[in-house]
Amino acid sequence: MPTRLPRRMLLGAAAAAALAAPALAAWPERSLRFVVPFGAGGPLDALARLMALPMSEDLGQSVVVDNKTGAGGAIGCAEVARSAPDGYTALMAGVNMPVIPLMQRNPPYRMEEFAPLSRLAVIPHVFVVPPTVPATNMREFVAYAKANPGRLSFASFGVSTSNHFAGELLNIQAGLDLTHVPYRGGAAAIADLLAGRVTCMFSTLPDALAFIREGRLKALGAVLPERLRWLPDLPTLAEQGLPDVVSESAFGLLVPVATPAEIQQRLGDAARRALQGAPMRDRLEQLGMIPIGSSGSEFAALIQRDIRLFSDIIRRTGMTSLD
Q1: 64-77 pLDDT, tens digit each
Q2: Angle at 275 between CA 269 and CA 280, to 5 degrees
Q3: pTM above threshold 0.90
Q4: What is the fold, at CATH topology level, of the domain defined by 33-123+248-317?
Q5: 3-class DSSP state for residue 178?
């Protein structure tokens, strides 16, 4: 026989629901804060500021971008994890967000504390080498690297960044022995690549595109499922037999996990609508970004993919903790 709840409990639940409904209907009643865990001027900050205006018009409240920098993005992420789950504080996160909890013994946040709302945009990466490298595609590069084990190197933006993991993935999946050389950002890495001090790099498209067009770098493959509109003749890595090598600068919107589902939906919908306008898409293309605007469930699935992928690379390479 079904268990009957006491009448006072039923009345209490009904009263709570009645109080919550007007509050949700009225949301948002004040300005929203988008926390960017990196400094002003970077691509994630640019995306956040571009989206702030159309989203504020859509939601009827201002959207303020708040840069909370430090610890490779961990400080800003942790602040949002600790914030009230009321829909007024959201996180604009980069692809490295799932890495920090994997690399620290006492991480300042865990991915389970967040609800993913939408994967907003991606900056594609391309695999590039100096003109002196005797390869015009990935198959030729793999053969060249196998003929020179331990003598070639790959640059990255730094330890545990997306293109560091991509280089390790290439080592694992193609059976190579490329040495990792970390830099503090893309500019320094590109400078040494141009000078021939390192052999190759998974570079962001905006960092490398001008040099590719000038012939100062050779692009051997695009690291997306489809070819790039900027370089339509460049084959993807998947077309060249390396479908599982992943490297990209991806950005998404998340909120504390206890945020009411209705607010999550409304905020995610507003973000997706903001990406649909032609002026926004044109501006993102100028910045080398591809608008995505995924659902929350699609974004969550990609985060889980990255966690599995990064965990396997950390285990197989013995990467040290970021602590």
Answers
A1: 999 999 888 899 99
A2: 150
A3: no
A4: D-Maltodextrin-Binding Protein; domain 2 (3.40.190)
A5: coil
